[in-house]
Known about the structure:
single chain; mainly beta; Methanol Dehydrogenase, Chain A; four-stranded antiparallel beta sheet; 3 helices; 4% helix; globular
Amino acid sequence: MTKFALLLVLSLSAFAQKKPITLESLQGGRGGGRGGAGFAGAPTWMPDGKTFVTRQGRSLMVYDPATKTSKLLIDTTPIDAAALAPPPDEGPTDWTNRRARSAGMQFSADAQSLLYVTAGDLFLIHPTTGKWEQLTKTPVPELDAKLSPDASKVAFRRGWDLYVIDTATRAETRLTKDGTDTLRNGIPDWVYPEELDLGTGFWWSPDSKSICYLQFDSSREPVFPHADMLGTRAFAEPERYPQAGENNPDVHLGIIPASGGPTKWLEVGDTRNAYLIARAGWMPNARSVYMLRLNRVQNKLEMISIDAESGEPSVIFKESDPHWINLQGDIDFLRDGTRFLWTSQRDKGYRHIFLSSNDGKSVTQLTKGPWEVTAINAVDEAAGVVYFTSTEPTPLERHLFSVKLDGTGKRQLTAANFTHSVAMSPTGAYYLDTYYNLTTTVRNTLHSGDV
Length: 451
């Protein structure tokens, strides 16, 4: 395994500057912020996994691990200046899901376009030419923006509704029109991000023709007198939140054409009293969607595929536990379109990786033992290798491992006696390792992921 020194482009320049510590500066890292100019964050990997983009001040830099060199992709100063910053939040407001995902940068599959979000507006950067174009310029933020798989459109949330914009013509289509603060299209309520870690509520179909989304009707949920204590001064943030035995939101799963039109609603069961739709998305064939459905006490889980045309459901797998199912992660479909990876605690209560055919008829357990898999980091399908993080050496540490797709050849890749946090390229070619222990401050190194 090859090791590289990490360039300084990944360090936060603020640490090298002497600045006064204020309440405002301490709040600068709060989730849900609309800026982006000062954010360094995790690397954004190119689709081929060989290079990545990171921010240094107002510059986006491309780093090539093979040559150990970096170059300027683009100076974002004119882009950030072109965004129409909204007025700051004032007075009582809604808790807009601090656990919900907020989009940053996303490459198209061919790496010819980079979706960039700043101050709530959407931009498209073209890495090969260094040119950029502004897709939106509104005083209302465009949130959770997602490029379609063919990069012809961008879907996003505005207010309580879903929109799509054509990247070539900039023609905008409003997909849903009935959204209110208690009827949220593609936007989770408070419960789902907080309790189920569901960070988004809509998904592109693999053929870029449709979007499936969750609609949350929270009108029957009781209002909880919540207050935001994180600011300089506290303010009221009443939130709809069900206490034990009270109404959950009514959650609906629908499919809508990306060009606009009526929503086709699918049958998912009684979500107010009986079920939780913990995950959803598309099957690789683009003809069916899937959902992970929990019962309300969360001790029974099932993955169900639903035909988009007929609405016919098909159960792929079921799990149960005498007490509680600890749901983590999502279905990870392989690029071959026939299999998926899933982590489960069905093996004596320890979370491990399972490889399943899309119909659930063939299942292989890839990891096993009295320890936990905490994340699937990447899959190199060409080499037949899965990279994952686990607690195998000790629960006090986290380490990166690799294992083959047949469950053989498991290897530990990170150094012992440290806790490691890994940002890995989608192909597993390289990974950024952030590690520390009780006697060592946080360090960053870049590694080859070759096994």
